[in-house]
Amino acid sequence: MSDDQDKQAKSNIKVTRRCLLTGGVGVATGTAATLVAGLGAEGAAAGPLDRPWATELGDPVGTNPYGHPSSFEKTVIRRPTPTEYSPKGYVPPMNESSWTGTPLQDLRGIITPNGLFYERSHGGYADMDPANHKVVIHGLVDRNLELSMEDLRRFPTVTTFRFLECSGNSDLIWGKATYGGQETSPYLTAQDIHGLLSCAEWTGVRLSDLLREAGADTVRAKWLIVEGADSGALARSLPMARALDDCILAFAQNGEMLRPEQGYPVRLLVPGCEGNLNIKWVQRIEVTDQPLFATFETGLYTDLQKSGKAWISSLVMEAKSIITFPSGGQSLPEKGFYQVRGIAWSGRGRISHVDVSLDGGRNWTQAQLTEPVMSKCLTEFTMPWRWDGSETLIMSRATDETGYTQPFVQQIVEARGKFSEYHNNGIQTWRVESNGEVYNAQG
Ligand SMILES: Nc1nc2c(c(=O)[nH]1)N[C@H]1C(S)=C(S)[C@@H](COP(=O)(O)O)O[C@H]1N2
Ligand SMILES: [Mo]
Questions:
Q1: Which of 203, 213, 202, 210 is nearest to 226 (CA)?
Q2: In this structure, how many other beta carbons lie within 10 angstroms of the beta carbon of residue 363?
Q3: Is residue 70 part of a domain?
């Protein structure tokens, strides 16, 4: 390294240090200097020798034509659901049914990187050749359509930011599936309990445009049956009113083409509605006056109610939130100043506010929402917090623009009866112990 470069490197360090100590970091309480410990003389003495990347040339770029995260982030990956009874320690994937969760606790902002988007499949997944893929629209239409991917892309495209959540998400909040109805495990992380949730920017064509092109009889036909091309040929009934609203056939996600796991080359996106409706690898759309319900519908997710009857199809994912920091499996190094952080979402529209409680639900403080706040999309929230080192029960509660507020788990149990597998949007509690370790405190 030349003298000039050396000086430059040193002055860069100084700038960084000065910023840290004297400002830039706006905080509500205390001076910046109490936020983090200052660098001691030893820290200041650390020179380029400890940093080979500053003294030796690195590899040229271009050796990694499709980039990966830093090697220091290698634990930030999708994971299957942990279990106590499986020798492998997680629910083993089967060809008929497999899933992995998004590492929500390790992400920032609202967009899930494509490689970390949760996966849920009833017949494995396939990497289909888009050149041979067709979407057929038939039934109560003026003319049957058979659209290639090329044909599809000739329709006007739209781009929207939407979350996707499996209606089976958060079932571990009850401790049921993997813990045999026992108490839920204190060791579960946000990913373990709530990871069947992700959010992306989706690009595709409006389903309503395609129906218009086919001349669908939208008065007589109250339903669409949408079918995937995977081996499970997952099919779901979609009410016509919703199909004509904000549904799209998406071919791109976060700027690139869909991943095979997400239904490449094309999937249905039903904003705000349970993941199951969002048919991947779409190959057929039947316009009909009869829903499939119960007879042929595969992977149908029903909600048993107190009356003993079940809701056959609850489409909308109600308002929900979770704190991702501090959350299960993390630990706070020392008492002092932190930013509580989390995500909130609602299938009915925008999040209007999120409250955070630091005392097990007695007192609530409104958190700050990070812009942008978009409809049927994840919203990030934060709240400054000075941890005094005592045991703390921490929870969040979302309210959406319809005025609906996320309930306590107990309220859901009371409303529906003992146990309900799907659509669990109850408030999640984490316990910060006095040694800084954070545990799932549900149950
Ligand atoms: N064709 C097809 N579509 C499907 C599924 C499937 O197994 N096959 N799984 C559904 C379920 S249950 C969910 S939660 C979402 C998951 O989407 P993702 O894997 O992109 O996260 O896709 C839905 N669409
Ligand atoms: Mo799902």
A1: 210
A2: 10
A3: no
Phi and psi torsions of 184, nearest 5°: -70, 150
| Ligand 1 pocket test target in 166, 281, 292, 378 with most atoms within 8 Å of CB | 166
Pairwise CA distance, residues 351 & 346, whole Å:
6
Please state the pTM of the whole predicted model. Answer: 0.88
Question: What is the rounded CA–CA span in Å between residue 211 and residue 143?
Answer: 10
With a CB cutoff of 8 Å and minimum separation 6, the contacts of 195 are 78, 79, 100, 101, 102, 103, 104, 118, 169
pLDDT in tens, 426-442: 999 999 999 999 999 98
CA angle 408, 273, 372 (to 5 degrees): 80
Q: Cα dist. 402→54, 99, 323, 396 in Å?
A: 54, 32, 22, 18
Q: Which of 280, 311, 342 is the last residue of a domain?
A: 311
Distance (angstroms) between ligand 1 centre and the Cα of 125 equals 10
Residue 61 domain flag: no
Ligand 1 pocket test, candidate residues 79, 97, 122, 191, most atoms within 8 A of CB = 122
Tell me, what CATH number does 341's domain have?
2.60.40.650
| Sign of the dihedral defined by the CA atoms of residues 116, 121, 126, 128, in that order | negative
Residues 328 and 399 in one domain: yes
Query: Which protein residue has the closest C-alpha to ligand 1 atom 12?
Result: 276
pLDDT in tens, 162-207: 999 999 999 876 655 444 455 678 889 999 999 999 999 999 999 9
